[in-house]
Design brief:
The complex is a heterodimer. By secondary structure, chain A is mostly helical. Chain A has 14 helices and no strands. Chain B has a single domain, classed as Alpha-Beta Plaits, CATH 3.30.70. The chains are: A mainly alpha, B alpha+beta.
């Protein structure tokens, strides 16, 4: 088509359209249509986000409860599951009363204010700064599911020896002192590290590398060091009592993670697909990486495979909405190897009893992933990134420094917060550990008065 | 009266039971047991943590039989339980002082 014919065609179509456009009835029709299109998009986004909320809750119960529950001895299976389940109860109530407001109210650079106290004003209307096409209530729910699983991850470090009462108090204080501030700094409007809503240090964390995995993983290490080893550690066998349960749990985590990461797009568009892809790819290569490392020394194990998959999912979490599929494959593979080394070599060398490897997988994997996000984040995947402000692959090496600052703040907050909280729990609950006799008997009986497997019944 | 205590491979239990039934032995007690003789255990590795498992699953069969039938029963048991490999187990024979049938006070071999 030559330029003149093109112009003629445009005139032919355009002129009548222009004339029609001036007719008020048509204008009203167009406005109605636009409203309908936007309502349809909103409905689609909300549909995906509600599914994502459910998927992320499923990660804690039954996902994490099964994963952790299978890894402990059978006398502690119920107590371990109860710790995850307890968070589904506790974190929900706290979130409804003041947690959401402290995390996502505008507030200061470090903590939200009380504008959403008791969910005041959190309803059907979207909060455009956070998510323009879904009800504010959906956004609040989605974020709640993160506030549940994050503290639940810590329970892997003190498994088989913490008092239930001390655990409850610990989790309330930890949500207040560590989770809400960190979530606000990274995702809250005006937060110090918020890359897209006015933070002074733009740290990329798509779905919670710093907020979820570093805070929980590093707090887990502090707990393991503070609470010391389990009675009989290194002497008695402490084999996982059911890798079948752990396997089911890990696969539920993998599936749930699509809600976690792809849901963090906060809409059902192309960014969600991209995050979904990165998430799935990293899980696969991380499982392969961990199992390959095992295979060099012994046999390729099921526990190695599922641990690797979780490590990959952790590492890709901060990067999932910023990286292309091939870097996702790489991040996963490397994370599988790094976390294997942390869990198998480093833990053995230092001798801390991070019972179910909450630090080795979430702390290490989260840190590793957060740093690599600074390398592979690209505007080509996420258009919210400003021109020239992507990661190293976009020519912005400075982003790695931003990531490093975010990581350092998350580590510092987790260490300081957890130490203070453990001290408080120690005083209030007269010790955070169960007595030795209770520990030997098992937490199921000593803390909850029941047993997981009543085979004589 | 003699008591026969046989520790056998768990997967041989059905064969042994059938063989004993075949020669008319019907009273026996079976327990799941764990143990080892000369058979070595195996190694298990969980996230780099190694465990040597040397107590292996075994099945213990106990029965008290008339002295006259001892050799026949032991021979049948050995034949049915043997694979020829290490770990097949052992049979121990004891003297029994008395036997009492709880239901009706029968004593000695008539209580078997």
């Amino acid at each position: 088509m030559t330029r003149t014919t093109l112009m003629r065609t445009l005139l032919f179509i355009g002129l009548p359209a222009l004339l029609l456009g001036q007719d008020p009835a048509t204008q009203q029709k167009i406005a109605e249509l636009e409203a309908k299109v936007s309502a349809a998009q909103s409905a689609g986004d909300n549909g995906w986000m509600l599914v994502s909320c459910a998927l992320v809750l499923m990660m804690t119960g039954p996902g994490l409860a099964l994963f952790y529950g299978g890894l402990v001895r059978k006398k502690n299976v119920l107590a371990t599951m109860m710790q995850s389940f307890g968070l589904m109860v506790l974190a929900t109530v706290l979130w409804a009363l003041f947690g959401y407001s402290l995390a996502f109210g505008e507030g200061s650079a470090f903590l939200g204010d009380l504008r959403y106290l008791m969910l005041n004003g959190v309803g059907a209307d979207p909060m455009p700064d956070y998510a323009a096409t879904i009800p504010h209530q959906t956004f609040m729910l989605f974020q709640l599911m993160f506030a549940i699983i994050t503290p639940a991850l810590i329970t892997g470090a003190f498994a088989e020896r913490m008092k239930f009462s001390a655990m409850v108090l610990f989790m309330v204080l930890w949500s207040l002192l560590v989770y809400y501030p960190m979530a606000h700094m990274v995702w809250g409007k005006g937060g110090l590290l918020n890359a897209f809503l006015g933070g002074s240090i733009p740290c990329f964390d798509f779905a919670g590398g710093t907020v979820v995995h570093i805070t929980s993983g590093v707090s887990a290490l502090v707990c393991a060091l503070y609470m010391k080893q389990r009675t009989g550690f290194g002497v008695e066998p402490m084999k996982p009592h059911s890798l079948v349960l752990s396997f089911i749990g890990a696969c539920l985590l993998w599936v749930g993670w699509f809600g976690f990461n792809a849901g963090s797009a906060l809409n059902s568009g192309a960014l969600a697909s991209s995050a979904f892809t990165a998430t799935h790819f990293a899980a696969a290569t991380a499982a392969a990486g961990w199992v390959l490392m095992e295979w060099l020394h012994s046999k390729p194990s099921v526990l190695g495979g599922i641990s690797g998959a979780v490590a990959g999912l952790v590492a890709i979490t901060p990067a999932s909405g910023f990286v292309k599929p091939m870097p996702a494959l790489l991040i996963g593979f490397l994370a599988g190897i790094v976390c294997y080394l942390m869990v198998v070599k480093v833990k053995a060398k230092f001798g801390y009893d991070d019972s179910l490897d909450a630090f080795g997988v979430h702390g290490a994997g989260g840190t590793f992933g957060a740093l690599l996000t600074g390398v592979f984040a690209t505007r080509a995947v996420n258009s919210a990134i400003a021109e020239g402000k992507g990661g190293l692959v976009d020519g912005n090496a400075g982003q790695i420094v931003n990531q490093l600052i975010g990581v350092a703040i998350a580590w510092a907050l987790a260490i300081a917060g957890t130490l203070i909280i453990l001290k408080i729990c120690d005083v209030v609950c007269r010790g955070v550990r169960v007595g030795q006799a209770e520990e030997v008997e098992g937490l199921d009986l000593s803390q909850h008065g029941e047993e997981g497997y009543n085979l004589e019944a | 009266m003699k008591k026969i205590e046989a520790i056998i491979q768990p997967h041989k239990l059905e064969e042994v039971k059938e063989a004993l039934k075949g020669i008319g032995v019907d009273g026996l007690t079976v327990t799941e047991a764990r143990g080892h003789g000369r058979q070595k255990g195996h190694k298990e590795v969980y996230r780099g943590q190694e465990y040597v498992v040397d107590l292996l699953p075994k099945t213990k069969i106990e029965m008290v039989v008339p002295t006259a039938r001892l050799d026949e029963i032991v021979a049948t048991l050995v034949k049915a339980a043997r694979t020829g490999k290490i770990g097949d187990g052992k049979i121990f024979v004891y003297d029994v002082v008395d036997a009492i049938r709880i239901r009706n006070d029968d004593r000695g071999e008539s209580a078997l």
